[in-house]
Amino acid sequence: MAQAIASTNVPRWLPADQLDRLIDVLRADGRTIIGPTVRDGAIVLAEIQGAADLPAGRGDEASPGRYRVTQREDSRRFDHAVGPMSPKRWTFPPRAPIRLGRRTSAGVRFSGVDPRPTPRPTPLAFIGVRACELAAIKIQDHVFLDGPAVDGDYRARRASAFLVAVECATPTSTCFCTSMGTGPEVTTGFDVVLTELDDGFIVRVGSPAGVTVVDALSLSPADGSAMKAAEAVVAGARDAMGSPMNMENVHEGLQASPEHPGWAAVAERCLSCTNCTLVCPTCFCTSVVERSDLDGSISTSERTWDSCFNEGFAKVAGGSFRPLVKDRYRQWLTHKFSTWWDQFGSSGCVGCGRCIAWCPAGIDVREELAVIGGVGPVPMPQLSVVAAATEAPVTISPGSVPAAFVTVHVDGSSRETADTMTLHLSTTDRRLLAGRPGQFVMATLPAFSAAPISISRFRSDGLDLTIRAAGPATRALTELERGSTLGVRGPLGRGWPVEEMTGRDVVIVAGGVGLAPLRPLIDACLAERDALGAVRIYLGARTPTDRLFVEEVGRLALRMDIEVEETVDRAGPVWLGRVGIVTQLFDHATWDGRNAVAFVCGPERMMQATSEVLFSRGIDVDRTWVTLERNMSCGVGLCGHCQLGKFFVCKDGPVFSLAELGPAFTTDGL
Amino acid sequence: MSPTARRSGRRRPRVGVVKFASCDGCQLTLLDLEDDLLAIAERFDIVEFPEATSRRSAGPFDVLLVEGSISTEEQLEELLRLRRESTTLVTIGACATAGGIQALRNWSEHGPWAATVYPRPELIESLAMATPVADHVTVDAELRGCPIDPQQLLELLTALVVGRRPQLPDESVCAECKRRGATCVVVSQGTACLGPVTRTGCGALCPVYGRGCYGCFGPRNDANVVSLIANTAGLDDSVASTRLAGFTAWAEPFRSVIDDHGGPPGAKP
Predict the structure, then answer these.
(1) Pick among A38, A63, A271 to test the B interface (most B CBs inside 10 A)
(2) Looking at this predicted complex, what is its ipTM?
(3) Which of A40, A201, A352, A632 has a 20 to 30 A CA-CA distance from A131?
(4) Which residue ranges form the domains of chain B, and what is each CATH number?
């Protein structure tokens, strides 16, 4: 095929009045044609019937917060820049059903997978795609298709898409593709590319599918003067954008400046209205909306576009991780221009300028980058434990990712505290049974949103989930009785590095319900007891009635080969043990942590304080592991909710070493 | 009520629909749920709903939908009584949640207005201000809008039956505008629009037809009205109070911004 492209890759000439021949060939293959057309005062993308629908003789002008369609003196169809829409609307639609849930006499059932590969969608052909948009498609391809999780819905839509690119001739003042290295010339990722001149188009091919289409048109080669004019078109577009910005320091600059005063300044203008993220051709954050009948017995889970600018986007039971608009603006800009590199090996920005033009308040990311990203590192207060942390690359969890909810049975449940239950589940699902300590599952019932729950025990025929009733969805799970069923997807995330324990002393510190994800690790300690040094377990809880697994902990405390110390913040009448916060348990400890590995789970403030104490006892940052709570939703790194700096907590964690987290562990609002 | 409880044969929840100072449009939204009415009637025992039935009933109510703002002393007493008789009290519509269009009178002198409008103002027994229900009693949930959105009402009722949290997102009208593929009227036409500071729920009804948002669903959390006036096309200090002085004018931060701009237009008779 490569040879076929080469032999056909002679630029051809398509007269202006024969553009419909190209569209007809694409339609003959059953494709729906998506192209630019004027509607509601903008050049938008929509289904077109033929070349007559294209915006002949129309152009556009854009500046921060302002966009207008203009009248041109020629009748070219593509002499405009990009409008508010991008092909993302079709490859990754604003709403997509991903799952059905049902309550049947045999228990709950979930069909479709998450995300669902839909029945073969209508094949599409996009006409008029610009270099920046091709770059955006490539970026989303990498996010959705290159794993570990693959979005089946995106894959099906994308596989059918035929891309007719067009060379840009007249950029607007908001365009900055030359700064991002994505344009203006079309170089890769297209099937056919057109260069528009007054009387016709230079046609080149970029794929086997493109060869087939262009061959069907039987076009003659383009002549030399046309080729020369075509070169001038692209050169003119490049010149029109002026000198590119120097983006060299932006990656480091943004991550080193979480406390920069520029964030608060831009937040005063920012409306947190989400427009920038929703017009962005690469933004991919979504939420799942549950709809059901009045009985809650049939439900549809629908994936919708969401935005990190929404207050609810980073919300967990205890509140939002990014309560302030400045936190959210920082998340967006830093992700787009900096942490995207760490996650996906490229910038998340293609320089299309939509976020500038379509920001109602006219905020220009180029100015914000100059203010915040270009000034270099700004000092920030750090805990000594964080200062010692070194940069560690993001690790990708290996293996394929479970995409579907499976039905598991409740064999029984145990009440742990007033609001926390442990469900004893049976399943034959081999993936669930093969999970590792520290991993979690998404658990759900029809009509309820899915909740991330850590696995608190693995058995040969099932597992335990320990669930705190923090809201209606988790409460419904805690109320499940013996004989009922629920949907579980997992195991997800990266668990505790059990192998790090071999030959070392082990320190385990838990606060409250944080003992749940550590319990399988304690099980692993017992199974491998002879291979480990000293094993010390420190447990804290608010009150005696907030302690988990009380009998089990009592039995552990009786063992001669494990040290268990417990404390509560506030004692009740029957509590004879220690009173105080968990870090006080270390006050009288005499051990040396230089050959120890530590595992910590509890409220974030407790983990920070504990890490500091462990560090002072000689446990280095690469041997202290914590597990983080975020609002995991998809569980596979595709919905964006659980981002923490360069990490997706759901897939890169939830277990991290302090060395990996670095300042992300202590920066507020990240 | 959880599905388990419902299947175990617990009685249907008793629902009341009542109104104070309002136009009845929001409660009629319940009747507009034509496809779902039978299912709703099967699962809820609608015992009080003057717009739909002449059958009257006293409380107690498991769920009480309250429309309208509190505009008279009599209404206030009635509201306090109804709150005592209701387990879950839900306010519906801009009047109940924000005071409604009639709350514009809160900026004006009550006496002179009554004397201008009525031949015998001494017969008028209204409070000086029209206020939202939440100013007087605890509210368990609210449905915004003028009028409320039928799908949000259905979502609330479904969530009550199923026992889950209703999904009523606090995001801007812009989010829905973009999902629907409508072109931003501020950016493309310079039209005044409250969409960026207004809570979603209407499906971006006005922008989809090329008009700016009037703020029917009221301010969302984080509504940055100051920046909206300072930085968006179509709005500036001269028209800000006119635009904000609508169905949800009395809700903060709209109210403070109107104050800062000298009150709504025509506050004096």
Answers:
(1) A271
(2) 0.93
(3) A40
(4) 3-162 (3.40.50.700), 173-260 (no CATH)
